[in-house]
Amino acid sequence: DENGDGRISREEFDKYSQRWKMAAVYERYREAGSDAGSEASSDGRSRAVLCILGGPGSGKSSQAALLAESLGGVHLTLGMALKSEAASSSDNSAEISACMQAGRLVPTAIVADVLRKLQSLPSVQGCDGPILLDGFPRVAEQVDVAAAVGEVKGVLFLDAPEEVLVKRLSR
Questions:
Q1: pTM for this structure?
Q2: SS3 of 49, please?
Q3: Rg of the Cα trace of the chain?
Q4: I want to staple 39 with a disulfide (CB 3.0 to 4.6 A). Which of 28, 51, 87, 150 is the partner?
């Protein structure tokens, strides 16, 4: 970031999108349209999915939100959804809480269930743009879950040196 606060402005995002090759993901989405996969948009076409991956503090949520806005899509954060589900009184809340407290990954079947709940939200159903999965999939067995959401058109990996991530997270 140019202003030193660890955040990137909309102008900086646009300026550096070529360098990050986000423009290529955007163009591929626009050229290919949304014509394959399993989750349909409101007009019957398949939903495009973009997976945003990176370490903690790499900017996944910030960049996913900017991409969702610029592509007319929806940003889904599985980590926040899992925390919310853990705090609820759902059938899976105790297991999710136990996994999180122990520092283990939540089982894929439960993550898939939470993702299905997110997909049924009116804000997701009413949006025909791509679905941006923030921090998902985390392991290889979750790739099929991401593919069940729609056609995975791209994966964006935000790479940052460990010392940068530690600095961002220690603020």
A1: 0.71
A2: strand
A3: 16
A4: 150
